[in-house]
Design brief:
Elements: H1 2-28, H2 48-68, H3 73-88, H4 91-103, H5 111-116, H6 122-141, H7 146-167, H8 191-207, H9 212-237, H10 242-264
Helix pairs in contact: 2-3, 2-7, 2-8, 3-6, 4-6, 4-10, 6-10, 7-8, 7-9, 7-10, 8-9, 9-10
C-alpha cells in the first residue's frame, strides 16, 4: 500500500514538474506547445536557467551548422544572435529597451511610467544596438568551446533573472512579470540552476584541461555579473519589473560574452 502511495506521489510530482517546464517553454520562447499539454505557470522561474541552456544549445547547433556550410564567421555570428532574439520573440531585448528608456528619465517618479509606454525612445534603441553589437563582436572573437559557452551564457543570464525575482520586490501591481511573485522563492531555488551551469564549466575542463581558466572564469563571472546586474537595476529603481528582468538577461549575456573573450585572449 505504501509503495502505491509512493508511486502515485512520484507520478504527481513529475507531472507537475513537466507541466511547469512546458509552461516555461511557452512563456520564455516562441516554440509551439501542443494544446493537449497541461501548463502550470506557478514557479516557472525556477526553470529559467534550464530554458537558457536549451536556447543556448539550439544556438550552438545553428552556429555549428553554419560553420559546416562554410558561412563566414561574422555573418554566422549575426545570424546566431538574431536567432536568439527570434527564439524568445524579443521578450528580453524589449525589456532591456524599455528599461533603458525609463532609466534615462531624470525624475525617478516617472521612470516606471516611461517604461510602461509602448513607444520606444532613443535610449532604448541605443541600448538594443549596444547589446547586439557586444554580442556579435564577442561571439566573433570566441575562439574555442563556442557551443558550451553559448549554453552557459544563456543559462547564467536567466539565472540572474531568477535571482532578481527571488531577491527583490516587484514594483507594479500588474505587468508581464507580476505573476512570478505569486510563488515564493528562496535561495535554495537558485542552487539547481547554478549547479547545472557550473557543470557546463566542468565539461569544458574535462574536454580541454588547458582551458581551465576560461571555465572557472565563466562560472565565477557568470554568477557575479548575473547578481550584480539585478542589484544595479534594483539600486536605480528600488525593485524590479518584467522589463528589468529582461534587461538582466540581456546585459548578463552581453557582458559575460565579453568577459569570456577577454579570458581567452
Amino acid at each position: 500500500m505504501s509503495d502505491n502511495k509512493l508511486i502515485r506521489s512520484l507520478s504527481e510530482f513529475f507531472q507537475r514538474q513537466g507541466a511547469a517546464l512546458a509552461a516555461a517553454i511557452a512563456f520564455y520562447t516562441c516554440f509551439p506547445i501542443p494544446l493537449s499539454w497541461s501548463l502550470e505557470f506557478r514557479g516557472i522561474a525556477r526553470f529559467a536557467p534550464v530554458i537558457g541552456i536549451l536556447i543556448g544549445g539550439i544556438l550552438s547547433l545553428i552556429d555549428g551548422g553554419l560553420f559546416l556550410l562554410g558561412c563566414p564567421v561574422f555573418t554566422r555570428c549575426v545570424l546566431v544572435i538574431l536567432a536568439g532574439i527570434g527564439i524568445t520573440g524579443g521578450l528580453h531585448l524589449d525589456g532591456a529597451m524599455d528599461t533603458a528608456d525609463g532609466l534615462a528619465v531624470g525624475d525617478p517618479n516617472r521612470r516606471l511610467e516611461v517604461m510602461t509606454d509602448s513607444v520606444t525612445g532613443a535610449f532604448g534603441v541605443m541600448a538594443a544596438i549596444a547589446i547586439i553589437l557586444l554580442k556579435v563582436s564577442a561571439l566573433q572573437d570566441l575562439s574555442a568551446d563556442r557551443g558550451l559557452i553559448l549554453m552557459a551564457v544563456a543559462g547564467w543570464g536567466r539565472w540572474g533573472q531568477l535571482v532578481a525575482i527571488a531577491r527583490y520586490p516587484y514594483l507594479k501591481a500588474t505587468g508581464k512579470g507580476a505573476f512570478h511573485k505569486d510563488t515564493p522563492y528562496s535561495s535554495w531555488d537558485l542552487v539547481p540552476g547554478a549547479l547545472l551551469l557550473i557543470g557546463l564549466s566542468g565539461i569544458i575542463v574535462l574536454l580541454h584541461p588547458q582551458h581551465w581558466l576560461v571555465a572557472v572564469g565563466l562560472a565565477l563571472g557568470g554568477s557575479a555579473i548575473a547578481i550584480l546586474s539585478g542589484a544595479w537595476f534594483n539600486a536605480r529603481l528600488g525593485g524590479h519589473t518584467g522589463d528589468t528582468y529582461g534587461a538582466v538577461v540581456e546585459w548578463t549575456e552581453a557582458l559575460l560574452l565579453v568577459w569570456v573573450v577577454a579570458l581567452q585572449g
